[in-house]
Design goal:
Number of strands: 12
Radius of gyration: 18 Å
InterPro entries: IspD (IPR001228), IspD/TarI (IPR034683), IspD/TarI_cytidylyltransf_bact (IPR050088), ISPD_synthase_CS (IPR018294), Nucleotide-diphossugar_trans (IPR029044)
Number of domains: 1
Order of helices and strands: EEEHEHEHEHEEEEEHHEH
Catalytic activity: 2-C-methyl-D-erythritol 4-phosphate + CTP + H(+) = 4-CDP-2-C-methyl-D-erythritol + diphosphate
GO molecular function: 2-C-methyl-D-erythritol 4-phosphate cytidylyltransferase activity
Number of helices: 7
Structural class: alpha/beta
CATH class: Alpha Beta
Bound molecules: cytidine-5'-triphosphate, the ligand C[C@](O)(CO)[C@H](O)COP(=O)(O)O
Helix content: 25-40%
Enzyme class: transferase
Keywords: Isoprene biosynthesis, Nucleotidyltransferase, Transferase
Distance between the termini: 45 Å
């Protein structure tokens, strides 16, 4: 039996979660509006292979991951199933495909609803971060196994960040209201890792506008911890990110000698 069956009042089991099985939910149901017109973002090609397949392979590269749940565009579940069948994926990993929702939060919840009961650690990973290295995935899993209820990979910022009063008319100058101390800020990536029961509780309890799953756990009053992220775990959001992703893949091919 897994250690998470004996949570402490803070949600953190004293013994950690060594040996718990890990599932990954990959929200891939977004349109990719910021990337511009075309197929849903997760289905667009990087070096000839759909971004989603890169993301699935990145997760399945971790030997700790035994199940990947892909949350497909609402009308694209059959296409995503065919894609998974058509690409080589590790045999030790099981795959499920479910249709997604209107928002990222809804899509993640639909993925969680599809999880079988025997996985006590859940990662949530954007299909839009196709190049995350396996060491980052393993570091997140390790920190959840060690007892953290929620773990995020993150990097320090290169830019100074300003808080502004957002303009009501696009393009109007925006007054700055604060400059948070950059040394205390981190840019958060995925996969984000969770004790399964904690993540489900967060999705059942927290409503409103959130941009990641860890912030929902913060709203439960639980501690979220940060582990080092990786530059190659960047999110493909705008057209220039596609250029960077292709360049990273080209460098990997060179380093691998083919
Ligand atoms: N309704 C949604 C919206 C987003 N996502 C997923 O959440 C991840 C992060 O979202 P983002 O990068 O914002 O993707 P899009 O919503 O597709 O991008 P945009 O906001 O530019 O449309 C992506 O893998 C995306 O497919 C999802 O599963 N369901
Ligand atoms: C979850 C996330 O990738 C963490 O940085 C990010 O918040 C997703 O934002 P998006 O606007 O849905 O791409």
């Amino acid at each position: 039996m897994s250690d998470v069956s004996r949570p402490s009042p803070t949600g953190v089991p004293a013994e950690g979660r060594t040996g718990a099985r890990t599932a990954v939910v990959i929200p891939a149901a977004g349109r990719g509006v910021r990337l511009g017109p075309g197929a849903p973002k997760a289905l667009r090609a990087l070096n000839g292979t759909p971004m989603l397949i890169h993301a699935v392979r990145a997760m399945a590269a971790s030997r700790a991951v035994s199940l990947v749940v892909v949350v497909a565009p609402p009308d694209g579940a059959a296409e995503v199933k065919s894609l998974l069948d058509a690409h080589a994926l590790p045999e030790r990993t099981d795959f499920l495909v479910v249709p997604g929702g209107e928002t990222r939060q809804e899509s993640v919840k639909l993925g969680l609803d599809a999880l079988p009961p025997d996985h006590d650690i859940v990662l949530v990973h954007d299909a839009a971060r196709p190049l995350v290295p396996v060491d980052t995935v393993d570091a997140v899993i390790e920190a959840v196994r060690d007892g953290a209820p929620a773990v995020v990979p993150a990097l320090p910022l290169a830019d100074t960040v300003k808080e502004v009063e957002p303009a009501t008319v696009s393009g109007e100058p925006e007054p700055v209201v604060a400059t948070p101390r950059r040394a205390r800020l981190r840019a958060v990536q995925t996969p984000q890792g969770f004790d399964r029961a904690t993540l489900i509780r967060a999705h059942e309890t927290v409503t409103g506008d959130v941009t990641d799953d860890a912030s929902m756990v913060e709203q439960l009053g639980l501690t979220v911890v940060v582990v080092p992220g990786h530059e190659e775990a960047f999110k493909v959001t705008r057209p220039l990110d596609l250029v960077l992703a292709e360049a990273v893949l080209a460098r990997r091919r060179l380093n691998d000698g083919f």
